[in-house]
Structures are given as C-alpha cells and as structure tokens.
Amino acid sequence: MRSLDPLTNQGTRTMITSILQYTPVWVWGLLAGLIALGTSMAFTREITLRRATIMPLAMVGLSLYGVASVFSHQPLALGAWAVGLAVSASIAIGMGIGRGAAWVPETRLLRVPGSWWPLVVILGIFITKFAVGVTLALHPDFARDSAFATSVGLVYGAFSGVFLGRGTALWKAAQAGIARATSLA
Description:
By secondary structure, the protein is mostly helical. Helix content is about 70%, strand content about 5%. The protein has helices at about 10-20, 25-40, 50-70, 75-95, 115-140, 145-185; strands at about 45, 100-105, 110. Strands 1-3-2 form a 3-stranded antiparallel beta sheet. Helix 4 runs parallel beside helix 6. The longest helix is centred in the C-terminal third of the chain and has 39 residues, at about 145-185. It is elongated.
C-alpha cells in the first residue's frame, strides 16, 4: 500500500521541485530584499515622515492592485479586501502598533522603535502572494471561484491593514511631536 504522507510522495516532491525551478530568479532577489527591509525594521531608527507614509500607502496600493488585477470580475474579493484592511488596521491601532514612536524636533525625523513584526508581515505577504500565484498557475479556474477570490482578498487586505495601521500610528506620533515642538517654540 502507498504511503499517504505527502512528504514521501514522489509526485509531490517533483511538483515542489518544478515550482521552485520554474520560479523566476528575480523572485528570490525580491525575497532577499524584503528580508533585508524587514530586518532593518527590527532595530530602532530614525526615518522621515515621508518614508513612514509612503511604505504603508505603497503596500495598500500593491495589495489592492493584486486583488483587482486577478479578481476584477469578483466584486466580493474587493469587498473582502476592504473589510480585511479596515478590521486589521483598527486592530493594529487598538493593540498599540507604533507605540514608542516619537518625533525628534532637532533632526525633524521620526524615531521608530525596532520590531520584528514588519518582517513577519512582509514574509506573510510574500508567502501568500507566492502561494496564490502557484495555485492560479496550477488551477487557473480558481480565479473564477468566488470563495477563493474572497479569501485571497481578505488576506491581502488584512496584511495591508497592519501596514496602514502602523503608518497611521507613526503619522499621529509625528503630528503630536510637531505640535508639541511648535507650542514650545
């Protein structure tokens, strides 16, 4: 009798090997860059308010594009994306994401405490995007499956919501610091 363990199944190993072999090289370069970006966020640093704003907006835009470009004919996917974004951003803000960020008037930069969470979220996005891409390559009909499209939309929105929540928290910290510095001047 054949083993039902997928890790010992030769067909599964062959499929995984094929997926990895046919993945464009630039994807691995992108992964390395994303890991470097996420790792840099694990340490306290000073950033411009512009940088604190651009990254969350870029993540939101890219995830919306990701859903809209693949599931444009699935309005539930876009609705789920919006729900995931709003709920996740609200939860992130409520849990104190960005806590400890402070405006430094002397440098006109935002001091952001380090956290490993951005790396976790970045890797979650990458893994999800990779898995969705592989799934759609193997099963193109899933692009028309409303349950699949809605699930993907919800996940993309939720990941983006974490970045939006963090960006909002950083923006508020900067605005509060600027207001304090202005009132003291």
